[in-house]
Specification:
- The chain has 318 residues and is mainly beta.
- It has one domain: Beta-galactosidase, Chain A, domain 5, CATH 2.70.98.
- Helix content is 2%, strand content 43%.
- The protein has one helix and 25 strands.
- The strands form seven sheets. It has a seven-stranded antiparallel beta sheet with strand order 10-11-12-13-25-21-20, with no helix packed on it.
- The longest helix is centred in the C-terminal third of the chain and has 5 residues, at 279-283.
- 40% of the residues are buried.
Length: 318
């Protein structure tokens, strides 16, 4: 697969927020910055440099969408409607990783001062995915921050599986005032899936009560939170936190890499490994011909308030 080019880029702005987007580099969000009279803050880890990059080896910066499946698929094979589907995606590891929408150029359909709309038409002419689809990715800035909306329409004549996600690299601070308290994820259940993200998170058969768990920022690992509340905050400075919300993403994956000062907070519509689970779980991913799947996320700054103390959060246990 050819390397992905960064340029040309698109810049949008609204109020104190500015964002830069690269349609050709998988529709990536390269930067999101908040600027006022006193300071400039990065709301995502900014992309450095403008050199092309190998599609399977992207810098750990920016934010990208995951489609038509999310997280890791190892090996890149699953069963669907009595057929074995093997994906030939050219990954050096033999895994399917975050789908392939982030590894293909998108086309810029239209742009305004505040927004950019991109499209990806996939005709299923290769072995990376056997179903054609049409995807639209919209970035919209306002005084409150960034809104990202992803829609995928099944243009095939059969039912195709679909799971969607967003993968931002978020800066965060571990030095915060003692009275600031802890940051929580409100969800039904956590699943530890390993630092490599290869573990399966098997969905609960029956709904579970909502609980509060400490946001895992201190220890390297990957946790999938089943049926989370749709909102999560991350400490950025002593005065500000990042707040991310999502719609149509039932779950949240939190990846804390070793030795790096960023978090990956990924709203996802299906738990990791869903394509390899039982028939009931796989059927939940089905998208009929002509039907559309949607994911929407927002990201912006919030002034620090004192959240519920960590002591009230439940420990993370599988």
């Amino acid at each position: 697969m050819p390397a992905l080019e960064i340029n040309p880029t698109v810049r949008i702005q609204a109020g104190p927020y500015a964002a830069e987007i690269s349609p050709s580099a998988g529709g990536r969000l390269l930067s999101l910055t908040y600027t006022d009279a006193n300071q400039a803050l990065d709301c995502i880890v900014p992309w450095q440099g403008r050199d092309a990059f190998e599609a399977h080896n992207w810098p750990k910066a920016g934010a990208f969408v995951m489609l038509p499946f999310t997280n890791r698929l190892a090996p890149a094979q699953f069963n669907w409607q009595d057929q074995t589907i093997t994906l030939h995606n050219g990954s050096p590891t033999g895994q399917g990783l975050h789908g392939f929408g982030h590894r293909r150029p998108w086309q810029l359909r239209q742009t305004t001062l505040h927004s950019a709309e991109l499209v990806l038409i996939y005709p299923a002419q290769d072995a990376e995915w056997p179903w054609p689809f049409a995807a639209t990715l919209t970035y919209l800035l306002s005084e409150a921050g960034l809104q990202m909306e992803l829609t995928v329409c099944n243009t095939s004549t059969g039912v195709m599986p679909l799971s969607l996600g967003w993968h931002p690299f978020l800066p965060h601070s571990t030095a915060r005032p003692e009275d600031q308290g802890g940051y929580l994820v409100h969800a039904q259940r956590p699943h530890a899936i390993g630092l490599d993200g290869l573990g399966l998170a098997v969905a609960s058969v029956e709904p579970l009560p909502m609980q509060s768990f400490a946001l895992p920022t201190e220890q390297a690992g990957t946790i999938a939170f089943e049926h989370y509340s749709g909102t999560v905050q991350v400490p950025l400075t002593a005065q500000w936190c990042l707040e991310m919300t999502s719609e149509h993403a039932a779950h949240l994956l939190v990846h804390t890499p070793p030795g790096l000062k960023h978090l990956c907070l990924e709203p996802i519509s299906a738990l990791p490994g869903a394509l390899k689970q039982d028939l009931r779980t796989r059927n939940q991913l089905g998208l009929g011909p002509g039907c559309t799947g949607t994911l929407a996320c927002t990201l912006g700054l919030q002034a620090i308030s004192v959240p519920t103390a960590v002591a009230e959060a439940r420990p993370l246990s599988p």
